[in-house]
Amino acid sequence: MRDALVAAAFQLFLERGYEQTTVDDIVALAGVGRRSFFRYFPSKEDVVFPDHEGCLADMTAFLAASAPEHEPVLRVCDAARLVLRMYAENPTFSVQRYRLTKQVPGLRAYELSVVWRYERALAEYLRDRFAGRRDGTLRADVIAAAVVAAHNNALRSWLRSDGRADAGATVDHALRYVQDAFGTPATDAGGGVEVGVGTEVTSDGAPAALFGGPAEHPDDVVVLVSRRDAPLWRVVQEIETAFGRT
Q1: Helix or strand holding residue 226 (H, E)
Q2: What is the CATH number of domain 49-182?
Q3: Which pTM was predicted?
């Protein structure tokens, strides 16, 4: 029933236009009553975004299931990929919705409210992870906004390709900027930067100096290992972090 209502709505939106289509038109085409429509959708706008409530619930559950050893920035990037997966499961519908939303100011405003809810879910998780740290709330909000901005930039690029581009690769490329800028340095052979001897590491796996002041023992030796292709600014940033100069 829910899918039938969505299909009927979009058929009419494409034929008549969004503003010219009423709820009565949708239920008539779907062969159901108004009560059935409002059982599934509070408003006509909601039928345009039928999958976001479920996706937001999935994202919230994914973040709630996080373990202390999960690197927080990587975790919120993975959470954002759940939204991408939702769009990529039905490229035709996603492209139709993108085109429709561009044409209707009210739908753009509605979409912004949906995006804000995703951002808040990411920020709440990060606030909990950074609780008690210097600028923890600020850091959480900035990272959440950056993840959403990177994801949405890549998503729009994919939608403009009519869903023909590689959605996963496009979003991975965008989110890599966020991970490089805010993520904890990697400690495995896969790359990144590793802070070594004399640097206290938090339960998050992050250098304590990233969130606090100067190192407790200034005479300790700090060894920094970086990938050869790492940007110079990133290396300098990690050096400053290790010495508590952020």
Answers
A1: strand 224-226
A2: 1.10.357.10
A3: 0.71
